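Posting this for the archive.
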Amino acid sequence: MTRKHLPGILAMAAIVVASNILVQFLFGQWLTWGAFTYPLAFLVTDVMNRVYGAGPARKVVIAGFVVGVICSLIGTQIMGEYGPLVTLRIAMGSGLAFLTAQLMDVAIFDRLRQGKWWRAPLVSTLVGSSIDTALFFTIAFSGALSFLEPSNDVSWATEGLPLLGVGPIVPLWVSLGLADWLVKLSLALVALVPFRAIVAHLEGSRAAT
């Protein structure tokens, strides 16, 4: 890892830290503010992949994973109204989801990099985002996985409610996950604009040196 990769590492670390903080603040009924910052991690990964290659992109992902683990460890020591801000299941879900989704993003992007400029970042981010949401919400809140942390009461997340307030009756965590996923999909499209601009700037800078 060289100095030219440092901005990517710092950007990833900043996004992970910000998301871990903002996830504590609600945005409406189904989301937190962290839902709007966390997807930017895919933008950082894709920019690194396009400009520097899959290897450096994976190293940035590992750096983000390490920062996330540190944030989780800190969160387990901070007591909220209902116990630690970060439970074992949340820590496990967050770490596994981040690492799996981001590495899948890198692999898919690398496979599609020779196609049209928008194809690799869009497809890799859509797939990675879907994996991330499915893994995190299932591991952290599904009643079927309560054996992972028997002392953690997630009955509030398994309460049956209309999907996003209007659909069929599903566990609350399913609505939370669906809302999170829809935000990720929307931002995957929006992020194509800064992706194009940042890549053009970095590639232009490399060509000039």
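The longest strand covers residues 160-162. The chain has a mean pLDDT of 93.
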